[in-house]
Amino acid sequence: MIVIGGEALVDLVPVPGTPGGELGPLHPWLGGGPYNVAIALGRLDVPAGFYARLSTDQFGDKQLARLRESGVDTGLIQRGPEPSILAVVGLNDDGSARYSFHTAGAAGRYVEDCGPLPEEVTAVSFGTLGMVLEPGASAYEQVLFREAERGRFVALDPNIRPDLISDPVAYRKRFEAWLPAVHLLKLSVEDAEWLAGDEDVDTALARWQQAGPAGLVLTRGGDGLSALVAGGRRVEVPGVRAEVADTIGAGDTVHAALLAWLHRNDALTPEAVRELGDEQWRAALGFAARAAAITVSRPGAEPPTSAEVS
Q: Omega of the bond prior to 213 within 30 degrees of 0, cis?
């Protein structure tokens, strides 16, 4: 089982058709980067579990039900009376999203370290607000290091939200401290640019990959995906054309699809990832690109099923 640690939240998305310049109604879509990854893995028929603290409010109830409907194990979920995290979404003309987050006192912040994960867990994945919002971020960090030490495959998608990072210098140092324990690192171009700071992005990418990850995957929106892998090789695939409704959950779908491909091909170990050839990487990246193209074709974070990707 692959365990996904991080936040669940509610995206409040503008209803289509609202005249430009006017405030219109907002539709609630269940989301959050790690939550979307867990949902996507379940729909891709990969054994997955979600590790988070959900509110006991109505949103939390709906989040829990949707996980179960998608085949995700909920045994590691904690509940609390604090409210759900909210993200107010603004959509640009090209369908790309911008967010304002409401996280003060929210349930997702207070997830606790539950101790060593069950023996059936083969991989863990972390990212987004889960690695930023304290005190939960420190709990997830403990789990990341402990499970890596226990031999679990570790994936990370920082999914940077600059408005919620009060000390960028400290966060960048913390990010680099995680890398020796990380085996698959997934970044968007925007993430890479922000994390690199004043450093040349290509130089930073090479340095991060050499610090620990067996594979580093970079998403480039409609321009496709690239992987920086063992020996400094770069493998690229083009994007898959799609009629874009919005881009919510696209990167999360890529992350889940990569984990799903590795799981299906018995490559969910750092050694196996380092041994993947260029054609295997193209197959993995192509699978992820196809899955993401389906997600962006419909509103909200609605990842595809295995049948849809096939």
A: no
Report pLDDT digits (tens) over 269-286.
999 999 999 999 999 999
CB 50 within 8 A of CB 104: no
Q: How far apart are CA 84 and CA 105, in angstroms?
A: 9
Q: How far apart are CA 270 and CA 241, in angstroms?
A: 31
CA distance 119 to 24: 48
The SS3 assignment for 167 reads coil
CB 3 within 8 A of CB 76: yes
Are residues 121 and 114 in contact, defined by beta-carbon separation less than 8 angstroms? no
Amino acid at 298: R
Find, among 128, 223, 125, 225, the residue nearest to 181 by Cα.
125
Q: Is 112 exposed, middle or buried (0-12, 13-18, 19+ CB in 10 A)?
A: exposed
Asked whether the beta carbons of 25 and 89 are under 8 A apart, the reply is no
- Return the structure tokens found at 175: 């990010």
Residue from 6, 113, 103 nearest 52 by CA: 6
Rounded CA-CA distance 196/206 in Å is 11
For 106-149, how does the pLDDT look when each residue is reduced to its tens digit (9 = 90+)? 999 999 999 999 999 999 999 999 999 999 999 999 999 999 99
User: What's the full length of the chain, in residues?
Assistant: 310
Q: Which domains does the chain have, with CATH numbers?
A: 2-309 (3.40.1190.20)
Which H or E element spans position 166? Answer: none
b/e code 168-181 from CB counts within 10 Å (16+ = b): eeebbeebeebbeb
**CB-neighbour burial class of residue 293 (10 A; exposed 0-12, middle 13-18, buried 19+):** buried
Q: How confident is the model at residue 15 (pLDDT cuts 50, 70, 90)?
A: confident
